[in-house]
């Protein structure tokens, strides 16, 4: 894998990460938005139901107040009439809500109004308005007994059985949506009117429903829940209203499946649209990233090709110029120039051979299946022997500092030799005549190192980071195309190792090859002990 | 079907329990009363009136009892005799005579034909009794009919209140005999429908003929003919009786007339009693609250001034016949030789005039009969005579 492709992969990964993170952020924001909408929707439903309950409560309270007012008016109308008792008895003909009306006093208790307690009757005769609790009549509809003071007649009161049939009908007719309904409870939590037909048996029987306990809570000053499993066994959202006179509670409830149906549909649609948009955005982003990466890759290839062409043009141009000058010397046909012509040709042939060799090295792929065990100590001795003539010619002393024990690695011997000789050749060329180039071997944990140190001019710090880039030779001779060090890095990387440089101007350079250690052949001891 | 009280064993005789509902499904009569008051052959294939007191009937040749046996003439004769009629076989027909001076054909619509065999009673109707005891009665259709009711279970509960409750709670598919207010409990309950039909009994104010003189009764009839009375007693609905307008006659002074009524708080009887009390003004006495036993006793002894009741009022011939001194419809409660003579002569118009001249009662209106029925039944209705007599013809959505 090349450096450029690695860079592109990293870039691609970053792009995908950015798009993914953006998508997740959008999704989180979307989910939060949906949640907020959902909560707001539920609150809106509860508010609407509470408003209906409040309205129903006002109507119920007004109904009872009207009946009491009617009874007061009736009492006033017949006061003092000789047939007062009969007129009162006939009052239900004109006011069907009054089931039974009678004047009571100490001698005539309210025999037909059994739900009034003795205390209430006493209070009524003392001029206080009293009401009984709710009870079921023989026809199964509900009633309550009320007494109002008889005007101008101390110790008397007019009592009536207040028929709540109309009131029950009023509650029954409250509909919310398709299946929402209202329930009405007395102070004891007894259901006395139900919009849900299935709960009306409880109205007659007096058995509590699921909401009864909440109605009692409301009367106790506590806040009843607005979302619960209702009397029909279904989860409902509800709005409550508490009445003080009479002390009743109204709840208007709607199954959540219906109450939130529209909101849920809208949220689902919104969610789906957001997901689609997110998916589309990610798709487009990834596609565009791929296109950009492809464009960058193509550009990089062209730039690489340009650098190769530039290097080849520069180096071959230099060689061609020398050969042209040598040819001009040959055309002079002067024997004096023969040695020079011979030296030039020899040098140029050597340079071109190295040029071709560098390109050949580049074309050789590293095949890990061809790796063999190598003792780096023997290897170092071998390459120094190969380089010895060249070093001697330059007046350089080659020194090998081996490890006490064999230092085993696995690799392509030919390519590793090419890499090591390249470093050795560079060191010799960089060193002044009479200097020493040291090849030193070391082991550190699971790695083996081979370093080549010279006493040359060193490399400035600004050039060190790109010292292994292709076509960036720092040599002034013009005989190098800058493929040597990139090739060294390519080879060592392919062996699972690395190449580094320690250098400072005027203090020489040390190139260090790090390779993974291998077990000694036949020992099976791996990882090798330090 | 929810019912209240103990269920009497089903028989073709008049019954006082909810079992009577099943009589029309198990037994047939020779004739069937139609909604318009006309008579149509049922078990009889043909009828011929011989004179006012006698008829001849031909029996449907394919008629069979539910045990599979054909209907023999002697079965018909025996059945009619047990219904108080005189009957005999004659030339392959049945000759039927009334002990009374007059013999309306409607009597034949109530005389159910049956056969007793092995301690069981069989009818020719579409249903047979499968099981019965005091708490339940199971009837099954003899021959299954697609999309029709195959089986009826009448389940009885201790009280009407419990029967009503259990129906409301979904333990029954039907509950007959509900009133207008109780119907409201079933509003918007999808599994039920309310079925209606006019009553054959009218709400009426009967006069104690032994206590109130004729002139006063005529004046009372005029006073109580006001449509206001029906409106006050039945704010919801009550069909007025078809009758000739009664000319106003002042109510003569006299003692206050007590008004007896089967009063329950809030009941229509009580409202009617109050309305009568208001309408009669100073002549109206106190309202007497009576029990059903009280009511029967007072009818037998005539010991009442005014009584709120619901006498038979449909078909019109039966309404008139009820007041005959030898009425086949019940114990005698009124005697008017002129009226009897008109009925005996078959002069119905004159009979009604005689009744108005010496009135025993003032019919006020025909209230509605109501029942709760499963919503799947498509053409359920009440009447025309019995309560749910057309049940075998009802279609059911599957």
Entry keywords:
heterodimer; A: 530 residues; alpha+beta; 6-stranded antiparallel β-sheet; 5-stranded mixed β-sheet; 50% helix; B: 398 residues; 8-stranded mixed β-sheet; 4-stranded mixed β-sheet; 12 helices; 22 strands; 25% helix; globular
Textual characterization of the structure:
The complex is a heterodimer of chains A (530) and B (398). With 530 residues, chain A is of the alpha+beta class. Chain A contains twelve helices and 17 strands. Chain A is rod-shaped. Chain B is built from twelve helices and 22 strands. In chain B, strands 15, 16, 17, 18, 19, 20, 21 and 22 form an eight-stranded mixed beta sheet that branches. In chain B, helix 7 (227-233) packs antiparallel against helix 8 (268-280) and helix 11 runs antiparallel to helix 12.
What would you say about this model in short?
The complex is a heterodimer of chains A (530) and B (398). By secondary structure, chain A is of the alpha+beta class.
Helix percentage range of chain A: 40-55%
Biggest interface goes to: A-B, 31 and 30 residues
What kind of sheet is the major sheet of chain B? 8 strands, mixed
Biggest sheet architecture of chain A: 6 strands, antiparallel
Strand content of chain A: 15-25%
Question: What would you call the quaternary organization?
Answer: heterodimer
Class per helix and strand makeup of chain B: alpha+beta
How far from one another are the termini of chain B? 18 Å
Q: What proportion of the residues of chain B is helical, as a percent range?
A: 10-25%
Total number of strands of chain A: 17
Beta-strand fraction estimate of chain B: 25-35%
- What is the N-to-C succession of helices and strands of chain A? HHEHEEEHEEEHHEEEHHHEHEEHEEHEE
- What's the overall average pLDDT of chain A, rounded? 85
* Rg of chain B, Å, rounded: 22 Å
Q: Name the shape of chain A in a single word.
A: rod-shaped
Content-based structural category of chain A? alpha+beta
Unreliable spans of chain A are none
């Amino acid at each position: 894998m090349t450096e450029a492709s690695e860079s592109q992969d990293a870039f691609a990964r970053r792009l995908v990460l950015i798009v993914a993170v953006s998508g997740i952020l959008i999704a989180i924001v979307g989910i939060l938005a949906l949640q907020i909408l959902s909560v707001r929707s539920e609150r809106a439903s509860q508010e609407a139901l509470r408003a209906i309950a409040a309205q129903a409560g006002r109507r119920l309270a007004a109904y009872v107040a009207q009946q009491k007012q009617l009874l007061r008016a009736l009492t006033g109308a017949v006061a003092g009439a000789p047939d007062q008792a009969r007129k009162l008895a006939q009052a239900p003909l004109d006011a069907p809500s009054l089931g039974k009306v009678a004047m009571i006093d100490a001698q005539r208790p309210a025999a037909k109004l059994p739900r009034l307690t003795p205390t209430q009757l006493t209070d009524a005769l003392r001029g206080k308005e009293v009401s009984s609790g709710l009870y079921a009549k023989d026809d199964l509809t509900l009633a309550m007994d009320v007494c109002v003071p008889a005007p101008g007649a101390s110790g008397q009161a007019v009592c009536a059985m207040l028929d709540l049939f109309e009131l029950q009908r009023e509650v029954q007719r409250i509909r919310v949506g398709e299946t929402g309904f209202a329930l009405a409870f007395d102070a004891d939590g007894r259901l006395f009117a139900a919009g849900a037909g299935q709960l009306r048996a409880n109205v007659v029987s007096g058995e509590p429903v699921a909401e009864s306990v909440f109605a009692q809570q409301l009367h106790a000053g506590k806040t009843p829940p607005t979302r619960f499993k209702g009397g029909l066994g279904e989860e409902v959202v509800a709005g409550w209203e508490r009445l003080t006179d009479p002390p009743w509670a109204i709840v208007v409830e709607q199954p959540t499946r219906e109450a939130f149906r529209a909101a849920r549909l809208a949220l689902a649609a919104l969610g789906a649209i957001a997901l689609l948009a997110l998916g589309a955005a990610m798709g487009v982003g990834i596609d565009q990233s791929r296109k950009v990466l492809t464009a960058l890759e193509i550009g990089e290839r062209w730039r690489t090709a340009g650098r190769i062409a530039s290097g080849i043009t520069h180096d071959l141009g230099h060689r061609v110029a020398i050969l042209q000058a040598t040819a001009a010397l040959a055309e002079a046909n002067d024997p004096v120039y023969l040695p020079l012509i011979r030296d030039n040709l020899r040098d140029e042939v050597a340079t071109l051979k190295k040029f071709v060799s560098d390109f050949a090295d580049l074309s050789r792929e590293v095949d890990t299946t061809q790796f063999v065990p190598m003792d780096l100590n023997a290897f170092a001795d071998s390459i120094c022997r190969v380089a010895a003539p060249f070093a001697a010619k330059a007046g350089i002393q080659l020194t090998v500092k081996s490890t006490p024990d064999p230092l085993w690695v696995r690799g392509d011997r030919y390519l590793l030799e090419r890499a090591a000789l390249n470093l050795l050749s560079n060191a010799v060329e960089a060193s002044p005549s009479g200097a020493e180039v040291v090849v030193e071997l070391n082991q550190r944990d699971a790695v083996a190192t081979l370093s080549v140190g010279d006493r040359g001019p060193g490399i400035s710090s600004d050039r060190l980071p790109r010292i292994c880039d292709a076509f960036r030779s720092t040599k002034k001779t013009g005989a190098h195309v800058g493929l040597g060090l990139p090739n060294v890095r390519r080879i060592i990387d392919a062996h699972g190792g690395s190449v580094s440089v320690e250098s400072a101007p005027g203090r020489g350079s040390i190139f260090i090859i790090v390779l993974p250690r291998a077990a000694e052949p036949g020992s099976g001891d791996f990882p090798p002990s330090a | 079907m929810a019912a209240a009280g103990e269920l009497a064993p089903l028989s073709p005789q008049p019954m006082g329990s909810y079992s009577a509902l099943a009589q029309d499904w198990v037994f047939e009569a020779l004739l069937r009363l139609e909604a318009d008051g006309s008579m149509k052959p049922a078990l009889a294939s043909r009828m011929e009136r011989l004179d006012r007191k006698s008829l001849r009937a031909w029996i449907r040749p394919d008629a069979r009892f539910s045990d599979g046996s054909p209907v023999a003439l002697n079965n018909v004769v025996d059945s009619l005799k047990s219904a108080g009629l005189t009957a005999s076989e004659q030339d392959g027909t049945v000759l039927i005579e009334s002990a009374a001076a007059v013999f309306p054909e409607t009597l034949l619509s109530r005389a159910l034909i049956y056969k007793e065999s092995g301690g069981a009673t069989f009818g020719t109707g579409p249903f047979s009794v499968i099981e019965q005891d005091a708490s339940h009665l199971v009837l099954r259709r003899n021959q299954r009919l697609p999309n029709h009711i195959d089986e009826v279970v009448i389940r009885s509960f201790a009280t009407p209140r419990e029967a009503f409750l259990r129906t409301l709670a979904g333990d029954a598919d039907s509950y007959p005999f509900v009133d207008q207010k109780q119907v409201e409990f079933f509003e918007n309950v999808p599994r039920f429908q309310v079925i209606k039909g006019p009553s054959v009994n009218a709400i009426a104010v009967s006069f104690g003929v032994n206590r109130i003189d004729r002139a006063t009764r005529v004046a009372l009839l005029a006073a109580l003919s006001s449509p206001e009375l029906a409106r006050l007693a039945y704010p919801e609905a009550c069909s007025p009786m078809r009758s000739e307008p009664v000319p106003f006659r002042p109510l003569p002074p006299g003692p206050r007339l007590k008004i007896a009524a089967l009063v329950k708080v809030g009941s229509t009887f009580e409202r009617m009693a109050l309305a009568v009390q208001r309408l009669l003004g100073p002549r109206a006495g106190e309202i007497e609250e009576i029990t059903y036993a009280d009511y029967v006793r007072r009818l037998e002894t005539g010991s009442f001034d005014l009584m709120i009741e619901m006498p038979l009022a449909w078909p019109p011939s039966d309404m008139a016949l009820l007041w005959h001194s030898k009425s086949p419809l019940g114990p005698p409660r009124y005697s008017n030789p002129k009226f009897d003579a008109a009925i005996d002569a078959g002069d119905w118009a004159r009979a009604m005039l005689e009744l108005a001249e010496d009135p025993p009662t003032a019919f006020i209106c025909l209230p509605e009969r109501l029942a709760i029925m499963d919503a799947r039944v498509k053409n359920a209705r009440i009447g025309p005579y019995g309560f749910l007599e057309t049940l075998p013809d009802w279609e059911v959505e599957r």
